[in-house]
Amino acid sequence: MVRTVGVEEELLLVDADSGEARALSSSVLAIAEKDTAGQSPFEAELHRQQLEFSTHPCADMGELADSVRRWRAQAVRHAADAGAAVAALATSPLPVSPKIGTGERYRWMAERFGLTAQEQLTCGCHVHVSVASDEEGVAVLDRVRCWLPVLLALSANSPFWQGQDSQYSSYRSQVWGRWPSAGPVDVHGSAEAYHAGVRSLVATGVLRDEGMVYFDARLSHRYPTVEVRIADVCLDPADTVLLATLVRGLVDTAARQWRAGEPPSASGTSLLRAASWQAGRSGLEGLLVHPRTWRPEPAPAVLGALLDHVRDALEESGDLKAVESALATVVRRGNGARIQRETLARTGSLRDTVAECVRITAE
Predict the structure, then answer these.
(1) Of 14, 32, 82, 306, whose CB is crowded by the most CB atoms within 10 A?
(2) Selection from 40, 37, 44, 36 nearest residue 10 by Cα
(3) What does this chain do (predicted)?
């Protein structure tokens, strides 16, 4: 069985001239709805400076790449009709005053979480991979958890926050971690234990519902998928496809381990939290925590370990050569965080940095 993959990308709406984030999602969504006769893939997000789209499930990664580029192009076109531009940025480089979206759910979140909700203008990328059952899905969650920080480092695309260099490659990961349910979690052990844990979490009253269970990876509450949520939105759509392909490879590998009776790593959540912090801090520019030894190693070595871990699955799906090439490209040219910083160093302007990211997003 070839597993299907779907991607959700959150995009930033910005002023085409100033580069500042603009609260125009309602206008863009209305234009998209009219253009697609009610079949729009776009949705509102917590803040009105954001726009989200979802691809359909794809078994072929070339088809997924076409879908990501197609919906990005449509987002660019609809935003232009509303007087804005689109940037695949996980945070706004320029200072911004986030505006909470309309609707009862978002109003509840704003009241419940205060400044945490107000400051959550961040854009992520969620990858859905099909699973045969909740039992298989939870077995996968238990076995991919130690590799998720590597995906964060790969996708890191948020070095700037409110006009300043945050000193992180993914400052989004720091902001996102303020939600009470966000981050890595313990090994679940079974689907029954997973669902019982989610019910208990919601029953505390801290969260509104199951949709606010923001684990780094979870069972989707809408689709028969494992949903990996740790990544920043990627600046280059090729990196989105690389991320999705690696996630499918991780899911395939984990499912095989489960069927073979191999237990998941017993590493504690505190180690995973430290590894995620390091991934968000350094991205691909320094050291990462190796998921097998839990010791610091250069990022390219840890990426190599990830590739070796999923190699058999990638060979079987026919994706190995494409992933090897894409990883080499990312190591050479850098992720979104490096591209943003290099653009700022070259131009001396965050406005020009946003403009360059708008150009890359639209390509």
Answers:
(1) 14
(2) 44
(3) ATP-dependent carboxylate-amine ligase which exhibits weak glutamate--cysteine ligase activity.
Report field, pTM of the whole predicted structure over 0.85: yes
The two structure tokens encoding residue 357:
């990211």
Give 60's DSSP letter. Answer: S
Which conformational region is residue 252 in: left (phi greater than 0), alpha (psi within -120 to 50 degrees), or beta?
A: alpha
Close Cβ partners of 324 (under 8 Å, ≥ 6 residues apart)? 307
Using CB atoms within 10 Å of the CB of residue 259, give its burial: 0 to 12 exposed, 13 to 18 middle, 19+ buried: exposed
How far is residue 279's CA from residue 194's CA, in Å, rounded to a whole number? 26
Chain position carrying tokens 């480092």 = 153
Q: How far is CA 122 from CA 31, 56, 78, 103, in A?
A: 23, 23, 21, 19
CB-based burial label for 169 (10 Å; 0-12, 13-18, 19+): buried
Closest by CA to 250, choosing from 238, 239, 264, is 264
pLDDT tens-place string over residues 135-189: 999 999 999 999 999 999 999 999 999 999 999 999 999 999 999 999 999 999 9
Bridge partners, 87 (sequence order) = 12
What tokens does 313 get? 């699955």
Distance CA(331)–CA(334), nearest Å, equals 5
Distance CA(68)–CA(325), nearest Å, equals 19
Residues 6+ apart with CB under 8 A from 32: 40, 42, 74, 78
Helices (H), the chain: 25-35, 61-81, 104-113, 115-118, 134-144, 148-155, 171-176, 191-203, 237-259, 269-282, 299-317, 320-333, 336-347, 350-362
Residue with tokens 């726009």: 51
Q: What does the pLDDT look like over 10-61, one tens digit per residue?
A: 999 999 999 999 999 999 999 998 887 777 899 999 999 999 999 999 999 9
